[in-house]
Design brief:
Layout: E1 4-6, E2 11-14, E3 17-19, H1 24-38, H2 41-61, H3 68-79, E4 84-85, E5 94-98, H4 101-110, H5 119-132, E6 140-146, E7 155-161
Antiparallel strand pairs: 1-2, 2-3, 4-5, 5-7, 6-7
Bound molecules: zinc ion (ZN).
């Protein structure tokens, strides 16, 4: 993983995007604040923000796309501490997420959630599938159908390619 640190600006970058390291306290509290302020719109906003940044990163890190994008995305996701995803191939459209940063973080800080909380992971998976398959982002729909923060054994993200 080629994380570049710019000493002059005191900033880290990966795939042309700024990279900031935050703990689960920060991330889950920020997410809760967005949900308190924006209501149901907060989820779509967070998914889209993640998908946009990850699409840009993956395209920069794997400009030729193709079969290596799935492995790169899985490695990137786990290296950055978000958990472990298994991006299926072909017809497989169910992505298990183990050790979710957001899901487990939410449980640790806020207790059981009313709905899935792994919005960043949903956007990440949406972007990874779109880049791997050479599709525009809006051709891939993703949603979290089970979340550890809601009492599930693990998180599950379901993908639907609409084109
Ligand atoms: Zn989850």
């Amino acid at each position: 993983m080629d994380i570049r640190f710019d000493k002059a600006r005191n900033a880290a970058h990966l795939g042309g995007e700024a990279l900031v390291f935050h703990c689960h306290y920060y991330n889950c509290t920020l997410q809760a604040a967005l949900e308190d302020g924006l209501g149901e719109a907060a989820q779509a906003l967070q998914v889209r923000a993640a998908a946009d940044v990850v699409t840009s990163q993956l395209r920069a890190l794997a400009p030729d796309g193709g079969s290596g994008v799935r492995e790169l995305a899985q490695r990137l996701f786990s290296t950055l501490g978000f958990g472990a995803i298994e991006l299926g191939r072909g017809e497989s459209r169910v992505v298990p997420l183990r050790g979710s940063h957001y899901g487990l973080g939410w449980l640790a800080i806020r207790g059981q959630a009313k709905g899935p909380v792994c919005h960043f992971a949903v956007g990440f998976v949406q972007a990874a599938v779109a880049v791997a398959e050479g599709l525009p982002l809006d051709a891939v729909a993703a949603r979290e159908s089970a979340c550890v923060a809601c009492g599930a054994e693990g998180c599950t993200i379901e993908i639907e390619v609409t084109r």
